[in-house]
Write a structure and sequence with these properties.
Largest interface: A-B, 98 and 96 residues
Number of helices of chain A: 17
Protein name (chains A, B): Ribulose 1,5-bisphosphate carboxylase
CATH class of the largest domain in chain A: Alpha Beta
CATH topology of the largest domain in chain A: TIM Barrel
Oligomer: homodimer
Radius of gyration of chain A: 24 Å
Shape of chain A: globular
Strand content of chain A: 15-25%
Largest sheet of chain A: 8 strands, parallel, barrel
Number of domains of chain A: 2
Family (chains A, B): Belongs to the RuBisCO large chain family.
CATH architecture of the largest domain in chain A: Alpha-Beta Barrel
Organism (chains A, B): Paenibacillus planticolens
Helix content of chain A: 40-55%
Cofactor (chains A, B): Mg(2+)
CATH superfamily of the largest domain in chain A: Ribulose bisphosphate carboxylase, large subunit, C-terminal domain
Distance between the termini of chain A: 47 Å
Strand order of the largest sheet of chain A: 5-6-7-8-9-10-11-12
Pfam families (chains A, B): RuBisCO_large, RuBisCO_large_N
Chain lengths: 419, 419
């Protein structure tokens, strides 16, 4: 690990040679302009230039992935793909996430020399860890606050996502808390709407959570969606903490990595990082950012929990990609900075075995909305079926065999297992 | 204009019927989940559901634009494209840009029912204007501060972008200010680097600007790149204002729309909005956001100047798209909120006639880096050649005819006109 440079790995597609494309990337993002200017000395280039570290050729294709790409005279019709590693002197921008992004992403996606560009990975020197303290709670802190060990933290998303009154919501939460649920989150569509202001919601929900805790001895973790503008982040966070809440949720792309880092400066409870809008940055295979790179920035900025979709979800993402994301979030960064991956979307008890088989870990949050709340025998049975699904998975017992002794699991299979 | 709903226009591609895709969008982003849940009453759907307002069928294609799209049983192999307009009840999220984004973008880009989705336009009710005050300076305020009327504000970008010492930079700025230049901006790669801290830069550059103003009677506008984390935005802004600076620049995608709105709460000088990283959100034609929609959010959040690339630039963007962006930035929003479009990238005197012919306006900032600084007779001649280029354009005189009487323009054509 170079302590004085940032290393970025790109997937590149170009009608030119990979060498030329790599040089364009390095030039555009450091000392270059389209024509030589006075003052651009060799010494300056040496001290501040980005450097092409390696180029690995991959496949060729006949069609450019993105529009507006230039071709060289006498172009052979081929677009070359490759993995290109470029390093940037840290002193060009210092350990600043906002300015790092201008350097490693910046105008690169618009270059005519490229018909495809995707940021695959980032290696950041320790100076970033001195500036950004990362998750304060992470996996361990979240387990401690919920009192749940040796299995995934199981929870649900408030459904319907929109429209419940504060009274309806707190009744629902009270019921789910008494059913023994570990965790509930607001929907990302539901933050501080005029029809059910966050202040009222926090007060009513936390009263229901505390009453249930008095009865059951277990305090449910509720992630209040505090997404909002800068001034609201602090105000909303303080509302939650003052009422005894143990988690705040934000839409990371709505508040930006800077907003997340700001929240992390004063947050007293885990930050549940929702990644809605992320599809925009990643669904085109030759554009944007791979989650492997992005999750590092989210963790650096302080996300304790990070959404990663789920296996066999309602989204476009492949299971392989979801599994990669789960592994990425809990791989050490600066020797720690672990975030808890949040598995969700079309989940139910039956998605536990596949998730465990593919990841080999129980250090995840596993969330089911309809897959728990719409269980034929109600949410408590839904929650139980999820626990049973994971028990079966970890013990290596086929789900239908385990279900024969466990009616709640059996009914979950009957309801959700036909899809 | 509906005052109680937000309207979003999407370009959609789907293997299903456009009707079904539109219903998925409306359902996912309001009351839906993958299975019916208790409490999702008709009354709740009525009050909080998103509504499909119109569907306009466009062309069909044989290949899906994005990966991971599902097809219906018996799929005919066609992917249908259409313009789909969906409206959302404002009371689902209130006039909040961060929560608006979770609603109009959110998880939509990941839906399997869609093989393409692009947010084309947004119509926002006046409640947003009450919450976000928009540009404080805009076109008029910027003209007043620079004293430049009836022609574009002409300026340059510091080049080399990286590596000049504070002394070298202030010498350069002093020289350019004495040459009569209207405007200079930092490069987006250069904010507050360890080798030339912003505090030193601001002090040295503003001293040079003031000395030049004493000599020439005209004060150059310098846009200091203050991009950074939240606490730095205020500190950096205050540094600039205290030193007599008249503009701050931010990379909007680095600080997020929330960061921009935060800065706009206390800014005392125009905010120069750089859009690096934007390519990620827009270069794939069936993904992301069209600038027509995004620029509205930038203006709402307070951008006084907005980068739009330039005609015949080094970037992939078509001239038509650049022209659309220029028109969009200065079209009224809430009856005002105009931002000054910033035309840049591979610009020189010769790009003025095409820009004027296509846009019919002089209300732009026209920036040239190498195209001014590398002029054979130096930057003052470069600046003069740009002014002459616009004079010729507005008067409808062909550039080479005008150049016959103006050596600085003639030399610019000789240097840059061969490309």
């Amino acid at each position: 690990m170079k302590q004085d440079r940032v290393t970025a790995v790109y997937l590149v597609e170009t009608a030119y040679s990979l060498e030329r494309a790599a040089a364009s990337i390095a030039g555009e993002q450091s000392t270059g302009t389209f024509t030589a200017v006075p003052g651009e000395t060799d010494d300056l280039k040496q001290r501040h230039g980005a450097r092409v570290e390696s180029i690995e050729a991959l496949e060729e294709t006949d069609t450019p992935s993105l529009p507006g790409a230039k071709t060289p005279p006498g172009h052979d019709g081929k677009y070359r793909r490759g993995r290109v590693t470029v390093s940037f002197p840290l002193h060009n921008f210092g350990p600043s996430i906002p300015n790092l992004m201008s350097a490693v992403a910046g105008n690169l996606y618009e270059l005519q020399e490229l018909s495809g560009l995707r940021l695959l990975d980032l290696e950041l020197p320790d100076a970033f860890a001195s500036r950004y303290t990362g998750p304060k709670f992470g996996i361990e802190g979240t387990r401690k606050l919920t009192g749940v060990y040796d299995r995934p933290i199981l929870g649900t998303i408030v459904k319907p996502s929109i429209g419940l009154t504060t009274g309806e919501l707190s009744d629902l939460v009270g019921k789910l808390a008494r059913a023994g649920m570990d965790f509930i989150k607001d929907d990302e569509l539901n933050a501080n709407p005029p029809y059910a202001p966050l202040a009222d919601k926090v007060e009513a929900v936390m009263a229901a959570v505390e009453r249930a805790a008095d009865a059951t001895g277990k305090k449910l973790m509720y992630a209040f969606n505090i997404t909002g503008d800068y001034d609201e982040l602090r105000r909303n966070h303080d509302l939650v903490v003052k009422a005894g809440g143990t988690c705040v949720m934000v839409s990371i792309l709505s508040i930006g990595l800077s907003g997340l880092a700001y929240l992390n400066q004063f947050s007293e409870v885990p930050i549940h990082g929702h990644r809605n809008q992320w599809g925009m940055l990643t669904r085109s295979p030759l554009l944007g950012i791979e989650f492997t790179a992005y999750q590092k920035l989210c963790r650096l900025a302080g996300a304790d929990h990070l959404h990663v979709n789920g296996l066999n979800s309602k989204f476009y993402e492949s299971n392989e990609s979801v599994v990669r994301s789960i592994a990425a979030c809990s791989a050490p960064l600066f020797g720690g900075y672990k975030a808890m991956p949040v598995v969700s979307s079309a989940q139910w008890a039956g998605t536990a075995p596949a998730t465990y088989a593919a990841t080999g870990t129980v250090d995840v949050m596993h969330l089911a909305g309809g897959g728990m709340l719409a269980h034929p025998d109600g949410p408590a049975a839904g929650f139980e079926s999820m626990k049973l699904g994971w028990e079966a998975a970890v013990q290596g017992i086929p789900l239908d065999i385990y279900a024969a002794q466990h009616p709640s699991l059996q009914k979950a299979i009957e309801k959700y297992g036909k899809g």
